[in-house]
Structure formats: C-alpha cells, structure tokens
Amino acid sequence: MLDNRIFLVGMPGSGKTTLGRQLATHLHVPFTDLDHYIERKEGKSVRRIFEKTGESWFRKTEAIALRQATEEYEQGVIATGGGTPCFEGNMDFINRHGVSIYIEVPITEILSRMKAEGIAVRPLLAGKSDEQLYRFFSETLSHRKQFYAKATITYASANPNAGELCQLIDQYLVKKE
C-alpha cells in the first residue's frame, strides 16, 4: 500500500501523533513524531527550546530535523508539529518526499482535547484563558490554512481514525496509478 512516507500535518491537538502511531501500526511501518525526534536530538523538551532560544531558532531546528528524519526513514509515518509546514519551505519539502495528509479537526474539538491533556505543556498556549485560546487557534488556523491546503489529502473529521485514513490513502494511490 505505501511506497514512501506519509506526513501528517494539522493544528496542535488534531491527533497527528495518536493517529500517526495507529496508522504506522496498521501499515507495518515506522512512526516518528517530529517533536519527539527534535527532543531526542537536542536533549531537551520543545517547550524548553522555545523558552531558551525562541521560536525563530526552533523553526530552523525543526526544518533540519524534518530533513534528517525524512532521510533516515525511506518509508514510514511522520507526524509534524502544527507549525512545521508553515516555515522554511517545509510544506513543499514534505510534498516532494511523500504523501501529506492534513488532519482537519474543528477548533472546539481541539480545545476540548487540549484542556484534557493540559494546556501548560504547549509553549504557545500556556497561560491563556478559554477566550484567548479560541482566538489564538482561530487566528493561527487562518494563517496556517494556506500551508495545510497544499496537502495531498485532506482528512476532515472530529474523531479521526486510522481505518478511515487508510481508505483515503488507498483511494489516492489508486487514482495516482
């Protein structure tokens, strides 16, 4: 079914990591979460990197890590960070090196998930009120949507699952042949 890489893109809290693990298991390929990959390489959490070096430095580090992970895994599923596609020409890079899938989830669902897992662990969200969070997500999505829209496949669901996503990938591969 899969002859190269699948990159999952979308907002934080859209389920890229959870869905990515399920998808990789289903497809019997390796799974990589780009944030975790960066944390292993840098020896510190993404939050700490943001705090110590700022977003600009992090985005450069993220672009390097994306390229390294892509080189390391000829086949597999890579869950990107929410902002990954929006910087350093990353979305074009992703589309040249695999199938990109935009996991589109309503903002209200994302906020519900984030509150359940704890907002404080996300560097761009810590300390914001519910109203500020909704505004932040709306504005962020408005900016990022132009990059997410470049994805090979858009998977819109409030409750994404690997089975449905595999069907979409199969349909894409059949059309591609």
Automatic annotation (TrEMBL):
Pathway: Metabolic intermediate biosynthesis; chorismate biosynthesis; chorismate from D-erythrose 4-phosphate and phosphoenolpyruvate: step 5/7. Gene3D superfamilies: P-loop containing nucleotide triphosphate hydrolases (3.40.50.300). Its EC number is 2.7.1.71. Mg(2+) binds at T17. Its cofactor is Mg(2+). It is an enzyme of class 2 (transferase). This is Shikimate kinase. It comes from Adhaeribacter pallidiroseus. The lineage of its organism: Bacteria, Pseudomonadati, Bacteroidota, Cytophagia, Cytophagales.
